[in-house]
Design brief:
With about 260 residues, the chain is of the alpha/beta class. The chain is built from 9 helices and 11 strands. Bound molecules: ligand 48F.
Length: about 260
Amino acid sequence: MELDERIISRAIIESELKTLLSCTETDVAIVGGGPSGLAAATFLGETGLSVTLIEKKLSVGGGMWGGGMMFPRIVVQEAARRILDRFGIRYRPYTEGYYVAGSVEAVAKLTSAACEAGVEFLTSMTVEDVMVRSNSRISGLVVNWSPVAMADLSVDPLTLGCRYAIDATGHDAVVARLVAKKSDQVIVKGEGFMWAEKAESMIIAHTREIFPGLIVAGMAANAVAGEHRMGPVFGGMLLSGEYAASLIAKELCGR
Ligand code: 48F
């Protein structure tokens, strides 16, 4: 069989266009493919809800790839060890209650689990605004290709409808800030100094619906609340993603 470039191109375009069309109406749109976004995506996908994860970079993984100062290792505390087990991420105990895993393996296994759970990934796409109708609830996201902003092109965005959105954009809490700019219902306090114990112990309390239809998870949740940062200990990110998923599953699936 002789390979035909036109068939290869058609296969790619047709299959991705179908995916993009299906993502114009999704149950849950997750913004950001770091550890909290990936964990939330998997848990939600497993409930049978349709889940789209939008990531502005070419690859998912967020801050996990870099571990601590580019040493590709992450630390997870006892409270979240069960999540490492759940995703099959191997780890070694370091000292009591502290476990070390490889960041490459962690990202790969979180991503693989999200794929298995049926999550659709839209990469190189940036969320630049949200849709809010008269019911004062998030009804969708406004998106554009990331290179449009990088090249400073003047190109109008498109929209993706959703029943719930999760802001998992990390330290910048991008979606929360977009909403805060246009609604006084949301205030983003910005993250505080590094204090791992406090930051990790408060993250579940800060993982919540900050605006109808918008849940904040991961470092974005702490940034909105004015909570401390925690550095390369990742248990809270995984637990927050799991908890964000449970809040939405309760509303949309009644469990
Ligand atoms: O930063 P990130 O990994 O967020 P996280 O899940 O985890 C934080 C940790 O990595 C670490 C930490 C705790 O251990 O302090 O920093 O809270 O991932 C956020 C992702 O969101 C993407 C960004 O490229 C990254 O991959 N992102 C940011 N803004 C946008 C976006 C946007 N406007 N549209 C789409 N994706």
